[in-house]
Amino acid sequence: MKRTLYWVNKDLRINDNAALNLASKSDRLLCVYVVDKQSFEANNFQSKPLGDIRWQFLQGCLEDFNESLSKLGQAMHIVYGDTLSTLMRLCESYQITDVITTKLPGTYENRLITQLNERLPELTIDQVDQFTLFTKKSLPFELDELPISYSKFRKKMAEVIIPEPVSTVQSLPSMFDTLPAPTRFKPEWLPTVSAIKAKQGFEFEGGEQQGLKHLRQYFSSNSPAEYKQVRNNLDGWKNSSKLSPWLNSGCISVRQVMNNLAEFEQQHGKNSSTECLYLELLWREYYQWVHYKVGAKTYQFKGLAKHRPLTTFYPERFNKWCLGNTPYSLVNAFMHELRQTGYLSNRGRQIVASCLVNELSVDWRYGAAWFEEQLIDYDAAVNWGNWQYIAGVGVDPRGGRHFNIEKQTTLYDPNGDYQAQWIDLSQQSTQANQALDSVDAADWPVLQ
Ligand SMILES: Cc1cc2nc3c(=O)[nH]c(=O)nc-3n(C[C@H](O)[C@H](O)[C@H](O)COP(=O)(O)OP(=O)(O)OC[C@H]3O[C@@H](n4cnc5c(N)ncnc54)[C@H](O)[C@@H]3O)c2cc1C
């Protein structure tokens, strides 16, 4: 008898979910999502892995997935606590024979699987390869031979056929007779987030239904055909696809997005914009495989480089950057938008990351961790990979990027409209004249 625990993670969807399809072949099924206490505690870089805005979004995703499961006679059991001990306890209490989960590149998730395997060796653990567009098996090279530059990766992948989404399950096995009680119990360490509605924020509502609705709307508009011209603009709902929050929580899959893009091209023709969107989605793919390949180096100061960067940790500068109090008003506006909405355009992310590393000389990992807490669309491989790229310790053959803030302001916000949305411009000249570091009587920076 196959008694399965489906450990739900970044696959909060019914459609195109090969892990759920596999779970549907069990005799009994327990669907579990673990909300780990650690996610809400500050890490080594002073930030929490899960901030309020993404937590709010995630709750919408969990509710929506639970509704979909209940239509198939199942339910989602949300358990609050330490992930490993929770999974072990449930496996033992329910005499679980099989654990099914979606394979993720993150070192944390992979360590958990290894530990579960070591502690309960009789368990069969299936990690379904579906977070990426391609599976490891379908890569035209061994993972060790993953090209070290994106352009080489792109050329190699041009030959590989993009897979179709898998069929949707029509029914699921029955639940266990006695079910875990803690589903309704919410521990005191859980943040209570009241609905966050930022002023100029976008409407990101968590859940597969909302994700699919947005996917359909985007590809039934003309936006994909204009993507290249507007993707670097600093704001606007239609300037980029805005698919990332749903994509990274697994409400929609990258296969679904790519198939929608291919259909759009069939109907309206391919152009440089649709090609550009494809290439961005392929960047996402590349970072996932880089993470699989380099593992923990993703989070190390030296990253993939031979030498450590020349930056360090200046608490005061870092705090000013987080709060949008730097001498650079464009950067301040971005940091306010990020903190209030959880979203920032790609150009905004590049500029603030470059500022932290190059202007403020701060260790890039603090910035990456701040993004991890703040972003509604946080993805480990993409976030840390992009930060490494800008800090010059990643997959960039040019060795880092330095954005000229003045030039970027002239190019993208010449009249200050974007800045005026997020900051009080009248206070900015005072801020610009303030020293970056507080100094003591002898003019040494005061470390706080
Ligand atoms: C420092 C930094 C940190 C970032 N952190 C994240 C993150 O945690 N999560 C995340 O999804 N994206 C991250 N990005 C990439 C990019 O900024 C976002 O994917 C994008 O802004 C999301 O909006 P969108 O869905 O409208 O993107 P679109 O422009 O519509 O792109 C479509 C999809 O392509 C992928 N994509 C786009 N740009 C990139 C890129 N530069 N690298 C890899 N994939 C890309 C994303 O999956 C995106 O959803 C980061 C970029 C930088 C510079």
Automatic annotation (TrEMBL):
Cofactor(s) the protein requires to work: (6R)-5,10-methylene-5,6,7,8-tetrahydrofolate; FAD
Gene3D superfamilies, A to Z: 1.25.40.80, DNA Cyclobutane Dipyrimidine Photolyase, subunit A, domain 3, HUPs
Keyword set, alphabetical order: Chromophore, FAD, Flavoprotein, Lyase
Entry annotated with the keyword Membrane: no
Domain of life: Bacteria
Keyword Flavoprotein: yes
Binding site residues for FAD: 227, 240-244, 280-287, 377-379
Single Gene Ontology MF annotation: DNA binding
Cofactor stoichiometry and binding remark: Binds 1 5,10-methenyltetrahydrofolate (MTHF) per subunit.
GO biological process terms on file: photoreactive repair
Residue ranges constituting the Photolyase/cryptochrome alpha/beta domain according to the UniProt record: 2-133
PANTHER family hit by this protein: CRYPTOCHROME (PTHR11455), CRYPTOCHROME DASH (PTHR11455:SF22)
Role of this protein: May have a photoreceptor function.
Family: Belongs to the DNA photolyase class-1 family.
Protein name: Cryptochrome DASH
Organism listed in the record: Psychromonas ingrahamii (strain DSM 17664 / CCUG 51855 / 37)
